[in-house]
Amino acid sequence: MKRCLCCKGFAENIAHAGDVGAGHTLKLLHNFVSLGFSAVLAEATAASRKAGISDTALLEVLGAGGGGGVVLERLRPYIAENDPSGFKFTVANASKDLGYYHTMTNELGVERGVAGAVHALYTSIEDSRLSVPEIIGVLVQRG
User: Fold this and answer.
1) Would you give the distance in Å from CA 81 to the centre of its chain?
2) pLDDT confidence band for 22 (50 / 70 / 90)
3) Tens digits of per-residue pLDDT, 95-141?
4) What is the distance between the alpha carbons of residues 54 and 57, in angstroms, rounded to a whole number?
5) Which of 8, 19, 93, 125 lies most in the core, judged by the most C-beta atoms within 10 Å?
6) Per the database record, which ranges form the 3-hydroxyisobutyrate dehydrogenase-like NAD-binding domain (predicted)?
7) Distance set, CA 138 to CA 55, 81, 129 (Å)
8) Predicted confidence (pLDDT) per residue in 59-95, tens digit
9) CA 68, CA 107: separation in Å to the nearest integer?
C-alpha cells in the first residue's frame, strides 16, 4: 500500500482489491451501488414532491433511517436548495459506467435486473450533461 500513497491526490479511499483488474471491478461495483441508490433517492424525492411532502420532512425521515448515508448527503443540497454542486457526476458518466457494469456482469454470468433498470433510467435522460442530482427535476417534470 505504500506504493499507493501517490494516488491519495486522486482518490478519497484506497484499498487493495486483489489481482490486476480487481480494482476496476470494484470501482464498477461501487459506482453501480452509488448510482443505483441515487436513482432510488431521485425517484423517491420526485414521488414525495408529487405527494405534497416537504423536502425537509423527506430528508429528516430518510436521514434517520435506511435512506441515510453518503449518497443522501451528496443529494441533500439539491433536494433542499436546488444546488447540484454536492454531486458533480454527469448523467453521461453514469450511463457509461453502468454500461461497463452491464458488460462486466454479463461476462460474469450474474443477475443484473436492477442494474438494467437503473441504466435505463440514466439513458432515458435527454440531456446527458445534467449532474446526477438534476435527475430529480427531470422525474418531477415527467410526473
Assistant:
1) 19
2) confident
3) 999 999 999 999 999 999 999 999 999 999 999 999 999 999 999 99
4) 5
5) 125
6) 21-126
7) 16, 16, 13
8) 999 999 999 999 999 999 999 999 999 899 999 999 9
9) 33
76 phi-psi bin (left φ>0, alpha ψ -120 to 50, beta other): alpha
Helices (H), the chain: 22-50, 55-64, 70-81, 91-108, 113-123, 135-142
Q: Which three cell numbers stand for residue 87?
A: 454531486
All structural domains of the chain, each given as residue ranges with its CATH number in brackets, are 24-142 (1.10.1040.10)
Enter the C-alpha cell of residue 100. 461497463
Q: Which three cell numbers stand for residue 102?
A: 452491464
Q: Which three cell numbers stand for residue 29?
A: 461495483
Q: Across residues 7-36, what is the average pLDDT? A: 79
Contact 46, 139 (CB under 8 A): yes
Residue carrying the nine cell digits 486522486: 10
- Its pTM stands at 0.87
Residue 66 has which C-alpha cell?
435506511
